[in-house]
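Chain A, query sequence.
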Amino acid sequence: MKKKIVIISSIFVLFVISASAFLFAVDKKPFEDLQASEVASASVLLLPPNESIEIDNIDTLVGMLNNIELLSRTIGHKVSGGQSCVFTITKTDGNTQEINVFGSYVIIDGVGYKGAYSPCEELNQYANTLLEE
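Chain A, predicted structure.
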């Protein structure tokens, strides 16, 4: 009986570990293969100051999106302070993607991730540069 409990417990622990690995698996560079020719239009909403800007230079934006590196998935992501830059890209096939960058966090279509700091900061600076133009 004791041996049976140990086996069942071991199987359960392996299942939990496997399920966790699956749930938290991350595509490290989700936009690595994105081409500018696949993007029909793009915009960014900066919060604050609640300003929306159409992006004319798609090549620059796509180059920065290609560099986004995701480190891990997050649960219960909330913007607690600072500026959020919400990029919306509409692809030539009609699909739309929303990429929200704040600090080193990235939310892609509602799914939150911890990202590498430098590419996130680069996107934030780019959005603020667009605001100043």
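The chain has one domain: 26-132. The first helix runs from residue 2 to 23.
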